[in-house]
Amino acid sequence: MFLRQLEPRTGRTTAEVVKFALWPIAIMTVLHRVLVKAVNGFRTDDFKPVYEAALAFLNHRPVYIANFNWVDPHYLYPPSGTLLIAPIALIDPERSRWLFILVNAAAVIIAGYLLLKMFNLALDSVAAPILLFAMFATETVTNTLVFTNINGLVLLGEVAFMYLLLRKKDAWSGVALGLTFAVKPVLWPLLLLPLVSKQWKSIVTAIGIPVILTAIAWPLSADPMDFVHRTAPYLMESRDYFNSAIVGNGAYYGLPDLLILALRALFGVMVLVSLWLLYRYYRDDQLFFVTTASGVLMTAAFLLGSLGQMYYSMILFPLLMSVVLRNSVMRNWPAWLAVYGFMSYDSWLSGRFPAAGRAAEYMKTTLGWSLLLMVIFAVLVARYLTAKRENRLDDGIDPAFVVREPARVAVG
């Protein structure tokens, strides 16, 4: 009788078996990434310049003193961001770094929970352990924790913004987005979402939060104008190292400027066509529209902008999660080949084939983002042409099998 009580519960359905298998794997992966890889650190340290800037701010010393001739991590946050991160310097650097790692890991987990809620998926569904494992197995989450930067909190701000926007909590959705703008305005393209849905309060608070925080931080900073004169111009430049944008890889491989411009223009046209089709035919399908349009906007920003780094890809989690929707643009194998390119933690550097391995390693993110935009463009254009040929554009451009059975989220 005693031994029978100790017997582990046996899965009786496929869903139970999957959950029993994946929950321990997912939890142990999270613990490994946080307690081993992140604490150990590797290659670069994004946290050190942030801590030093916070300490300088608290002691009213100059913050924007980085030498941009070096490739070491620089402090690039605006005064509003310096104000928000200043408390990290109230304790010693080592414990502060550990705390920063834990906060970002928690932010990723909370963002995952909000994604489940956005798609009407429960914590006891098979999606929960799959999502947790998938997030922490990626390069983007792993290196965010290992390098100890703020991307986990940016992801949480993005997902909270979407979650609240979809629930018509307009002002609060803008607060979530505005807090990310105050530190790292990488999500600025997402302002298009409340703009097209005319949720004006979201735009007002998203812009107002960083403005207010800047007004508070400016007189407290020793050198706020140096951000304007030194750091801001550097942020506008493209560089040929640690840069997976077209312009960065193009410069690294010595491509002609005209070819780089042509590639950016070509993908720019794809992005505009995709966004038009999404707006024209999907803006009333809010969950699909928000998650898909955000993916197009952010991938375009990474690929076509002046700087795109692989671990920015965390911002694409809502698009990837949309695969559970029946009309998702992610339900095909080329889309997930693209995802491998910018999410996989695999290194393609090869001692046996150094040139080919280096090219694969340096190009995989650029090719992954490029392929993703091409897939979304191709899927949407094919749907449009098919619906036009079948004279059903007035009813939308969803595939016939989706039209016959209304789109819904699988909650297995």
TrEMBL record:
<keyword id="KW-1003">Cell membrane</keyword>
<feature type="transmembrane region" description="Helical">
    <location>
        <begin position="75"/>
        <end position="91"/>
    </location>
</feature>
<keyword id="KW-0328">Glycosyltransferase</keyword>
<dbReference type="InterPro" id="IPR018584">
    <property type="entry name" value="GT87"/>
</dbReference>
<dbReference type="GO" id="GO:0016757">
    <property type="term" value="F:glycosyltransferase activity"/>
</dbReference>
<keyword id="KW-0472">Membrane</keyword>
<keyword id="KW-0812">Transmembrane</keyword>
<keyword id="KW-1133">Transmembrane helix</keyword>
<feature type="transmembrane region" description="Helical">
    <location>
        <begin position="286"/>
        <end position="304"/>
    </location>
</feature>
<feature type="transmembrane region" description="Helical">
    <location>
        <begin position="258"/>
        <end position="279"/>
    </location>
</feature>
<keyword id="KW-0808">Transferase</keyword>
<protein>
    <submittedName>
        <fullName>Glycosyltransferase family 87 protein</fullName>
        <ecNumber>2.4.-.-</ecNumber>
    </submittedName>
</protein>
<feature type="transmembrane region" description="Helical">
    <location>
        <begin position="172"/>
        <end position="196"/>
    </location>
</feature>
<feature type="transmembrane region" description="Helical">
    <location>
        <begin position="20"/>
        <end position="39"/>
    </location>
</feature>
<feature type="transmembrane region" description="Helical">
    <location>
        <begin position="367"/>
        <end position="385"/>
    </location>
</feature>
<feature type="transmembrane region" description="Helical">
    <location>
        <begin position="121"/>
        <end position="138"/>
    </location>
</feature>
<feature type="transmembrane region" description="Helical">
    <location>
        <begin position="145"/>
        <end position="166"/>
    </location>
</feature>
<feature type="transmembrane region" description="Helical">
    <location>
        <begin position="98"/>
        <end position="115"/>
    </location>
</feature>
<feature type="transmembrane region" description="Helical">
    <location>
        <begin position="203"/>
        <end position="221"/>
    </location>
</feature>
<dbReference type="Pfam" id="PF09594">
    <property type="entry name" value="GT87"/>
</dbReference>
<comment type="similarity">
    <text>Belongs to the glycosyltransferase 87 family.</text>
</comment>
